[in-house]
Amino acid sequence: MSSLLKGIAASNGIAIAKAYRLVEPDLTVKQKEVNDREQEVSRFEEAIQTAKKELEAIRDRAKEELGEDKAAIFEAHLLVLSDPEFLNPVKDRVQSSGVNAEFAMKETADQFVQMFEQMENDYMKERASDIKDVTKRVIARLLSVELPNPSMIAEEVVIIGEDLTPSDTAQLNKEFVKGFTTNIGGRTSHSAIMARSLEIPAVVGTKTVTSEVENGDVIIVDGIEGEVYINPTAEVLKAYEAKQTEWDSKKAEWAKLVNEPSVTKDDYEVELVANIGTPKDLDGVKENGGEGVGLYRTEFLYMGRDELPSEDEQFEAYKAVLSGLTGKPVVVRTLDIGGDKELPYLHLPEEMNPFLGFRAIRLCLEEQTIFRTQLRALLRASTYGNLKIMFPMIATLEEFRQAKAMLEEEKAGLQKAGVEVAEGIEVGIMVEIPSTAVIADQFAKEVDFFSIGTNDLIQYTLAADRMNERVSYLYQPYHPAILNLVNRVIEAAHKEGKWAGMCGEMAGDITAIPILLGLGLDEFSMSATSILRARSFIRGVKRSDMQAIAQEALTLGTADEVEKLVEQRLK
Question: What residue ranges of the chain have pLDDT lower than 50?
Fold first, then answer.
């Protein structure tokens, strides 16, 4: 029977294919007695070897397609499968009690998981989830049950799941995976960001898709409107095939703009730049006509490893990005750890509310050795391109002054040691805390630029955790309070002759772009795959018309009213 689900449009495009349910199979384990204990141990060892081969293949693929940082999680899983302290108790249990290997494995794993989860140390707690993941894989082998394996998909499919984990997305083959849809998630969730970087249509947050879809059902994922059709009628299918063709031809038209300027019909030019996580992302920036990098998330250098990256390691990464963009601007955000991003090896205490806690610049100003190492690496790399340095999570002028003073001290130290450092490096801040937006006029006297981080600004302004499904309705980029704060920041920057950019998801949102253009935003930083669509839109409108829309939007009362206004005016 045909049905329609509504969700959140997370990645543009139309996908039409059969459903592939990425849903966990039943791995219930029962205790059994075995007659041949040696043979049971051999069966266990074979399952371990098979699981290792699977993990090695997944790790290699992740490394090749997504980079070292995404592959590190599978290295940790392989370490667990080689750890005699974990494996020997399973074998001993089989030998001494004569129980089946899967029961011995489950009992042993449960003990380890319980032990690790009770530890104060965050790094050890992380090991509990590694053990759970690995145990599931080995038990599936012992039960002769197939785990869903997206890397083995060899026909065109739409993935259906509760959510997509890093492990799942690392295995997606773009050639066959045409789109995905999930029960949970929002536009800023991991799976949504991954979908945009893979350029596959996605609708997240449908709530019930896994309970309504069977393997082999025909699925339409409309990543433009946020709709999912299950077993559509012939009429709907035909209409969507036409819509898909239209979308593909639009993409082909946008591709022609790769070397064109981002300029409106009345000659108002803006900068369209990309958000990146590693030097490997530069290919996508160039292919999509990015005019630089508006946000280099340096935390990926620190994640998925057991120790801090050295100064030289960081220098090489920053140098690669700066030289790779041959003089185009590169805004590097200093270490932004905390909230939903943890570094287990730092052993930071658990917090009741990590998003409002010891994170980003707050951590760096206290852990000065970490911060100064990063600043030195950045300054050393500065001669290889057009570097701009940005401090995240700035709440007070004192924080900015303290961070900038450390930067100046490290610069003086390097120059004294005969190390060349670029002159005139712009130093700015991310505006993601409402207090900073409110006194942007004071900050504008001291910073060289602003970059508005809307993902956090929205959640802090509306007091709604963007990771919490139950309050996801409050994640409203077009809320007039957000628009007024954004306007305040842009006006404050321009009054002091400074520039204002935006590096949150809102910068690439096709409903928000007209308003931001009208408010005078100078730089739009987004997923590289959103750049050409944004450029096409900007080149087709007049700035004066967008100013009229923006000014009216600032006077409205709800996000819904703002959205309707934009829709009507752009008809």
Answer: none
Q: According to the model, what pLDDT value does residue 488 have?
A: 98
Residues 364 and 492 in one domain: yes
**Which pair of structure tokens corresponds to residue 134?**
């690995």
* Residue 306: DSSP 8-state: S
Q: Given 77, 364, 479, 503, which residue is catalytic?
A: 503
Does the annotation count 503 as an active-site position?
yes
Cα–Cα distances (Å) from 394 to 45, 397, 398, 399, 431, in that order, read 53, 8, 9, 6, 7
Three-state SS for 389-458 is EEECCCCCHHHHHHHHHHHHHHHHHHHHCCCCCCCCCEEEEEECCHHHHHCHHHHCCCCCEEEECHHHHH
Backbone conformation region of residue 12, classed left if phi is above 0, alpha if psi is from -120 to 50, else beta: beta
The DSSP string of 234-254 is HHHHHHHHHHHHHHHHHHHHH
**Domain of residue 115, residue span:** 37-142
Tell me: do 153 and 302 sit in the same domain.
no
Exposed, middle or buried, 270 (CB in 10 Å: 0-12/13-18/19+)? Answer: buried
- Domain edge (last residue) among 248, 272, 294: 248
Which position among 77, 190, 364, 494 bears the catalytic label?
A: 190
pLDDT for the residue 339: 60
Cα of 454 vs its chain's centroid, Å: 14
